[in-house]
Amino acid sequence: MQVKHGKKNYNFSIATSVLFMFCLPAIVSAQSFTTKQDTSIKSVLTLNEDGKIFVAVETPPAPVDGMQAFYNFLGKKIHYPAADKKYNIQGRVIAQFVIEKDGSLSDIRIIHSPSNTLSDETTRVLNLSPKWSPGIQGGKPVRVQYTIPVNYSLGDDDLSFVELTKFLNNPANYPDAIKTNRSPDLIVMETTIAKNHISTVRINKGITDELNRAITNLVMSYNDEVKARNGNYTFIFKFGNDTIDTHLLDQYVGAGDVTAMITVSVAKK
Fold it and tell me: Which residue of 52, 122, 180, 230 is most buried, as measured by CB atoms within 10 A?
């Protein structure tokens, strides 16, 4: 799903899974999706006879006006948070909720998210959702648990860091000091690009001297042309899968000094 804002396109990919997995590959109007039934899933989370929650039912719940209407609703209501646009934070938010017997959504939880602001936006929009037709089991409406991954992507920008990002995301380029790091933390680095090459590097927020040097050497070792205009840029190297608190980033990145931001997630062994 793609939402346009000004001159940029902000992409949202939504898939839902309970009895079915829906894949939404297109802009706002989903042209096709696939369904797959999992007959091995049984009812779970029994609170009491009235509060039993199912993850698979005979007749799955569905939006009253159909899935297309639900996709349109999400595309209209979701707004890419300003902080995440500023820091170029992208990725998958996994939300879980219960569709009640009356079709309302309850117990909305974020299982995983790249940032707190993406979590908040996903929760906000799901709280606004129109009622669904409830799931049916044994001829009666029942509570059903849903899990929805929502992929946030900023899409293409005027600046192209495609090759540099590929280089920074390739584990083969990382020394052992980085690969073996176990700190769930960030390194915030300011760089200067002059004549389409990285000329200077400064660590605004580090972890250890060893890691700081390793990251600095890695970035400075990139000798290919950087297809971006001259100026100051900030890279965020994220270790682990912890959610980024975008409010805390402001103390490390001055808004007036940043012309672009690349968020790089370092995969740990």
Answer: 122
